[in-house]
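Reviewer comment 2.1 asked that we show a complete input and output for one of the modelled complexes. We chose the asparagine case, as it is the one discussed in the main text.
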Amino acid sequence: MEINDFTINSIKSEYKKGNLTPKELLDYVFKGIKLYDSKINSFITLTEEYAYKAIESLKLDEIDLKPLWGIPVAIKDNMCFRGFKTTCSSKILENFIPIYTATAVQRLIDAGAIIVGKTNLDEFAMGSSTENSAFFTTSNPWDLERVPGGSSGGSASAVAARFVPLATGSDTGGSIRQPASFCGVVGFKPTYGTVSRYGLVAFASSLDQIGPFGTKVKDVELAFSVMSGKDDMDSTSHPYQFTSVNRNIKEYKVGVIKELYEAEGFDIEVLNSLNNVIKILKSEGLKVDVCSLPHLKYSLPVYYLVATSEASSNLARFDGVRYGLRVEGKDIIETFSKTRGQGFGSEVKRRIMLGTYALSSGYYDAYYLKASKVRTLIVNDFEKAFREYDFLICPTSPTTAFKKGDKTSDPLSMYLSDIATIPVNLAGLPGISIPSGCDNKGLPIGLQIIGRPFNDSEVLNFADQLESIINFEARPQLGGI
Ligand SMILES: NC(=O)C[C@H](N)C(=O)O
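Response of the prediction step:
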């Protein structure tokens, strides 16, 4: 069996023509994972037995009713899937088995998707390289010496390696878009509130958002249409209803974010790729200008106060009593501290300490409150820019995939990898990363497209058309199955 184009549409059309069955596709998927995942390490858990059982309930006459009928999907291991381990790549949850399924995951299942496994991440989604996983580091399928990005590096690499056509991620400061960029795939962070967070292990609740990875924008759109919408189990979920948009790309006005275009620290080849996109858009007749969002330069400090404050509160529940690991001490205080001391890795501890400090009395006003106020200035900058432009564009990340170990001893340089994605979370906006080319090492470069809140369909429509024009065909070579 030859599977050339690993898109949902082509898989479904092969199913309909009778050229492929869900069983054959699962055989192909698990064979690929078994052959190559020992090199890449995308998966923490495989749900093979479940998957083969799940396809038994697929009825061919429902294929047009279920958008993801027979589509294998990988789930980031910070989303609950009942009966299977949800580790968050942390020792503290190493053996945690949830008793319920996350709404976004359930909606994929209800649409016919087949869960094939849970993917690796930076512990509790804190990191940009997947090197903070307590279990193992994932490799980038384009170059095994390099990181796949993070924190959803397992999902991004699984799609890049063509293990699966679709995967889920969560994005607090770039965790879907940055690994998508490093792995040469499409990653979409929807508007905050459009996808329920119920069953997603919380990192920073005002920033976390679930979204999909795919090889093409249309696949990501389909997954988003299935996952999005009101959920009574998440009070921050919005009564959003997906409707697809079909507007000609020429009608849009695009702003290039000055602070992420003329900024230091961006590789010349990454900027050249952006320049190339600008040229393409102009030659298509679009209006493209450089526009300034002056408060964006505060995004990183604001994020590392807001996100860590929320994390210090969210992660307080892991105490050896309610969930996961318990290391016995002579009294309850010692049990707490031994459990947390041994259960959390160093990046998680760093963030809990920073957040606890920022929230503590006497410092709250100077740090958390101030950061919240500056966050509003960033939101206002975006609002103003969107009065003029339909979309804002910039590189997804300042560099292409870096080598393993390059940034592990310097947290600040790791944090800078998210300089272009973090502002989008602070403002709750939809943002997508699509491949825009390769650098001279043959590594993929990502372009980020940012839209107005709840204009997710417009972002996807624009990205889809731009993707066709760019026509990025390169893919990592792992060898055949
Ligand atoms: N969770 C994310 O979106 C990842 C971001 N790099 C962080 O470490 O916070």
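The mean pLDDT is 96. We note this here for comparison with the apo prediction described in Section 3.2.
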